[in-house]
Amino acid sequence: MSHLSHGQQQQSSPPRQWRLYRTGFEIIDDTVLLEEEQLREFKTGQFYPVNIGEIFSSKYQVVGKLGYGTTSTVWLAKNLQDGNNRYVALKVYTRDHSRAKEFQVLEAIGKTNPAHPDHRHVRTALDLFQLHRSGGDHSCLDQRPMWEMWESWKDLLRRNESGRFTEDFLKAGLRHLFMALDYLHSECKLVHTGKCITRRRIAYTTSTIAWFGGPVLSDFGAAVRGDVKRNQDAQPAVYRAPEVMLQAEWSYPVDIWNVGAMIWDIFQGRHLFYGSDPDDGDYSTRAHLAEVIALLGPPPLDLLDRGQRSREFFTEDGKSCRIAQCLRQRANFRGR
After folding, report:
1. Tens digit of pLDDT for each residue in 191-250?
2. Exposure class string for 78-115: b at 16+ Cβ within 10 A, else e
3. pLDDT confidence tier of residue 76, bands split at 50, 70 and 90
4. CATH assignment of 147-231+250-271?
5. Is 225 helix (H, G, I), strand (E, B) or coil?
6. Range 1-17 average pLDDT
7. pLDDT tens digits, residue range 81-140?
8. What's the farthest any 2 CA atoms get from each other in the chain?
9. So what's the pLDDT on residue 190?
10. Which of 9, 45, 115, 225 is 20 to 30 Å from 251 at the Cα level?
11. Which residues does ATP bind (predicted)?
12. Do 170 and 130 form a contact (C-beta atoms < 8 A)?
């Protein structure tokens, strides 16, 4: 894997370019706008206008589109400098979305201890480079395609008619996931902090489904150093750990809480916590804390002592104050 380099963009044609088929399918007129082309950010030049057949960094020839999001598009490409013409997935970011921090994390993960047996459970970058363009450059990430490290657990959950995983399948997947987190925590000294599960190639999510590889930890855009204590906000709202909600110093354990909350999604088909405030129905920290207390009991006093926001919700002796209304509403709802 290269360093965050300034890869040449179509400046020298590599040998043995792949011949693209131009017949056998419908050709869409250029005036028809599709997907990100309909977004205002595309019209203002934030997205890079990738074309089929285009060659990046003098070796990656684009052969098809895999998807898009608000900050990037993802393309299937052939590595023309690889003897086997292997496919790669190229993620091309919008020019206003700097990925320097995430790229540094990916480089660190790839180099930390590749010989470690749990390294294979963490998705790494094959290449990182820049696409130069008038008006601003675009960061580009090269990884193995998603059929080699297939789909997120959420995507695979949608493919299962029951909408949930079996207990045996979930246990097997979690074993590999915790191995990946152990590598991330102990070897890389990183906290993931986000929704983090990607799968290797499988047919996923009844007891009869074949398994061709363990879960793969991915998407490190929100990862931070775990050996540096911090109390900043982190994690998707419904997965936030108590110490994050209370702004107490947190580190590696928040990832374990995150996994515990996500297990409910894929095993029961719904969130464990929603955090819907009784006043307006929107997410609020007090409603989330009320749900946690209803399930697990009040937080320990030493956690409250460390939380900068603790006095917003609790008295000095640990009794809830602002969240009492949420607790009463939850109790009334269950009593119906």
Report:
1. 999 765 544 333 333 333 334 456 678 778 788 999 988 998 988 899 999 999 999 999
2. bbbeeeeeebbbbbbbbbebebeebbebbbbbbebeee
3. very high
4. 1.10.510.10
5. strand
6. 45
7. 887 778 888 989 888 766 777 788 888 888 888 889 888 888 788 888 888 888 888 988
8. 74
9. 93
10. 115
11. 91
12. no
Name the amino acid, one letter, at 149: M
Euclidean distance between CA atoms 63 and 112, whole angstroms: 33
Q: How confident is the model at residue 274 (pLDDT cuts 50, 70, 90)?
A: very high
Total residue count of the chain as it appears in this document: 336
Considering the chain, what percentage of its residues have pLDDT values greater than 70?
Answer: 76
Beta-sheet pairing, 55-56 with 215-217: unpaired
The answer to whether the annotation marks 171 as part of a ligand binding site is no
End-to-end CA distance of the chain: 59
- Please state, in angstroms and rounded to a whole number, the distance separating the CA atoms of residues 236 and 195: 7
One of 3.30.70.3400, 3.30.200.20, 3.40.50.12780, 3.40.50.410 is the CATH number of 40-98+124-143, namely 3.30.200.20
